[in-house]
Specification:
The complex is a heterodimer of chains A (185) and B (244). Chain A contains 8 helices and 5 strands; from the N terminus they run E-H-E-H-E-H-E-E-H-H-H-H-H. Chain A has 185 residues and is α/β, with parallel strands linked by helices. Chain A folds into 2 domains: 105 residues, Rossmann fold; 55 residues, Arc Repressor Mutant, subunit A. In chain A, strand 1, helix 1 and strand 2 form a beta-alpha-beta unit. In chain A, helix 5 crosses helix 7, helix 5 crosses helix 8 and helix 6 packs across helix 7. The longest helix of chain A is centred in the C-terminal third of the chain and has 15 residues. Chain A starts with a strand and ends in a 5-residue tail after the last helix. Chain B folds into 2 domains: 65 residues; 164 residues. Helices cover 67% and strands 0% of the residues of chain B. Chain B is built from 8 helices and no strands. The longest helix of chain B has 36 residues. Chain B is globular, with a radius of gyration of 20 Å. The chains are: A alpha/beta (185), B mainly alpha (244). The interface between A and B is medium-sized, with 19 and 25 residues.
Chain lengths: 185, 244
Amino acid sequence: MHANSSVIIHPWPIVQIGLRSVLQSLKIEIRELFTECPDCKIFAEWSDALILIDVNYWKYILKHQKFLGKRNISVVGLNFNSHQNFDVLLFNDFIYHNDNQNIILSKLNKFSGSGNQKSTSYQLSPRESDVLKLVATGHSNKQISDNLFISIHTVITHRKHITTKLGIKSISGLTLYAVINNLID
Amino acid sequence: MEDLFSKKHELIHPDDKLCDVLGRNIDLLSIVFRFGISANMGQDSVAEICLKNRIDADFLVSVLNTYDSTDYFPNTDSVNLALLTDFLTKTHLHHKQVTIPLLHSLMQNLKEKLPNTKLVVTLEKYLKEYVNKLHAHIEFEEINIFPLVGKLNNSSKTDEAKTTAKNLKKLFNQHANVETEISDLIMIIIQHIPAHADLQLFHDMLHTLSHFEKEQIDHARFEDKILVPRLLELFGINSRNHAR
């Protein structure tokens, strides 16, 4: 999942300044900075973005999680002082108070679209994600082919790649995977 | 020096002490329990214990070897089908009374440790659906497949051949689904163990699922490789369309 822009949501200015410096070095544009959770309407406008957010605001992400997979939004939790119980699966990764600069760079580099790091062979391509969403919602190969304007042969090839990359073969298993990873509701 | 890698898996024999057999592979204990063997096995051999408990020793040894080694394959013609279906029915009962309640209990523990998390809520839903399918599969076998063994000497078997062939084909497909879905569940849990989770709990769940998966595969081997070919042969059905 590659992001070209980012949003930082954290109440401490020093955190915002530090992250801005790291994101700039990774050529990830900083779209907006917030000290508290912004209006819901703004969230709905974001796509292909990386959100860096205080984990204490996890309910805000929970409220909007249906957008995450659909709009290619990754969420990194800034976990500095939280004692709350939150759903860790809402976040793609975490930055902790004792992470050094190299660790933070390495964690954020995964989300960079600058080409600093090639996508790993086991990550689904955007087209494979599209096919997975349709498989998981019960569409046949023919329906997927019509829906995505690709041949049935291509659909079958994508399905083979999905199974190989994820290690999951059954439709039930693929549906479970898609739900957990917010690709479908 | 002995080459450990080329050493052949030792088969279990009726003269072997049962405690030694179980000491080498403790997973066989639940199989032995299914035959009603539990207390006071002492130093007795498999054959001696079978004699005391009125169990067919050759059949028990075939079952133990099948579960003990994936390379072992019993002589299909020598297996007593009535004993086999009785054992398979007991295995179904074991799943219903032991394994499935254990999985539900582990899932309950996960729910308590990670309340309202999407992972656990979704896993629980998947497990419930899986168990429902498994119950339906068990019912299908016990109603449509196992009773065929009792009908083998019946003169009307030719009339039932068509229905039998259809049901046996359905059985193959169901086995494939039952095995794949449990293996997928294991893979998904491994990939999504959350940070800071109770690892022992996830370990217990994965270990139980993995053991259950192996049991399912061995159970299906008995049915697909012994029971089904014998039924096809005895009902005079062409087996070419049923190869797995």
